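Two proteins, back to back. First:
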Amino acid sequence: MNLTTLITHLANFAAPAMILALCLVVAGRFWVSNKPVSIIWWAQAAINFVVCLAVLLLGLWFFGRDGKMATYTAMVLAGATAQWVMGR
C-alpha cells in the first residue's frame, strides 16, 4: 500500500465522523436558538469529531472490521450526547 492509498483509506474512515460532527453543530443551532452559545461552532465540531472518531476506532478494535451498523449507531449516540452536553 503506497502513501496515497493509505491517506485515502484514513480519510474515508474518518469521513463519517467529520460529516456527523458538522451536522450535529448545525442541528444544535436550530434546536437551541434562544440560548447564548458558550463554545464557538468550530470548537464544537472539533470536539464532536474527536468523540465520533474515538467511537469508530473502538468499534474497529471491538469488531475487528470497519463499517458495522452497531459502530455507526454508537457513533451517532455518542456524538449527540457530546453535543447535548456542550449545549447545556
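And the second protein:
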Amino acid sequence: MFESLSERLERSWKILKGEGKITEINVAETLKDVRRALLDADVNYKVAKTFTDTVKQKALGQNVLTSVKPQQLMVKIVHDELAALMGGETAQLNLPGRIGEPSVILMAGLNGSGKTTMSGKLAKLLKEKHSKKPLLAACDTFRPAAMEQLRVLADSINVPVYIETGATDPVGVAQRAIQHARANAMDVVIVDTAGRLAIDEELMQQISDIKQAINPHEILFVVDAMTGQDAVNTAREFNERLDYTGVILTKLDGDTRGGAALSIRTVVNKPIKYVGTGEKMEAIDPFHPDRMADRILGMGDIVSLVERAQEQFDEAEARKLEAKIKKNKFDFQDFYNQIQQIKRMGNLKDLASMIPGVGKALKDVDIDDNAFKSIEAIILSMTPYEREHPECLNTSRRRRIQKGAGVKIEDVNRLIKQFDQTRKMMKLMTDKSKMAQMASMMGKMR
C-alpha cells in the first residue's frame, strides 16, 4: 500500500535538495510534483488541490531555521497535513452498551467489499482486546450463503451467531437478535446486512429500515480500498442515506494506490476507524492518521510494530525462556513457538515496512508469508525428544527428518547449524560479562 505514492513524494523532495531557502518558485515546483503524485495515487482531484494549496500557504509562511533544511521542513509540513487530511486523531468506537442493554453496530457496504468477513474480525477484536461479549447477527436474508459464511466465521473465532434460517424480513431478524443478546448477557451486537454488486434503491431502503428499527450506536461503512475513486463515490452515496459514523477500509494490503484512504475522510467528513490488512481474522487494525502519514513518507511505523509484538508477548513465558537461554537450554520447540508468535503479528512484508527505511529497501522483494514453511516442516518432523535435545541429531536422525519434511538434507543441516549459532549468540546476550565475545563471534560467522 502507498508504495508508488511514497516513491513519487520522495522524488518531489529532490527539487528542494541543495536549496538554501524556501521560495515561492521552488515550493510551487515541488508541490506541482506532489499534486501529480497524489492524483496518480487516485486521490480525489479537489482533495489533492486543496491539500497542496494548504501546504504551499504554510510553507511560504515558515522561516527556515539554520539547523533545518528546506527539504526537511517541507517533509514535516506535508506529514502534518497528510495526518490532518486523514482525520488527525484516531477515532474510537462509541460502545456505551452494558449487560442487559447491548451496543449495536450496523455494518453496511456493497457485496464483495469484505463486509461479512470484517464483521467477524471486528467481533474477534472486541472480544479479545476489549473484553466484550459480542453477538454476530446474520441479517442478509437474500443470500443463504452469507448466513453460512457468518456461521463459519463465528465458529472459527468462538463467537455466538444469531441466524434465522429461511427468514425474509431482515428488520425483524435484527430486532430479535438484539433481544437474544439482552437475554444472554451479551454487550455488543454486530449486524451484518445484505450487499449488492451496485447501489440500488431496494438495498438502500432495506438498510435504512434496519437503521430506523434498531437505532444503532455505530454505523460502519465497509469499502474496498482497491476500488479507488469508486470507493469515494460509493461512500458519499451511502452517507447521504445512512449518515454513518465511520468507515472501515479493507484490502489495504493489496495492490492499491491508496487514494481512497486519503480522500474519503475529506469527501464524506467521516473518520476511518479500522483498516483490514490481510486475510487472517487478526488482520484488522485501528486507523491512526499520524502513523499512516509516517508510512506514506517512508518513516516506518515502529509504534504499531511494538504494539503488535506486545499483543503476542507473555511476560511469564518470557521469563521462563530467558532462564532457559541462560542455561543454554533453548531448544527447537522454543524456536518453533517464537516463529508462531511472529506469524501471528501479521504478514512479513507488512511488518518489515513498519521499520524505517526497510520498506523502501524491500519494495521489489517478494517476501513469502510461507517463508517459515520448510523450517516448520523440519521441526515438526522431529520427535519431542529431538526438539528438546538438539545435540542428539546425528546423521541417521537428520536423514529421517529430511524425508519426513520433504526437504533436502542440506536444508536440515543448514537449519541445525544456524540454530546452534543463534543459541550461542542468545546465551552471550544474556551474559553481560561475555558481550564483548559476541562481536568476535559475529565476525567469524561472516
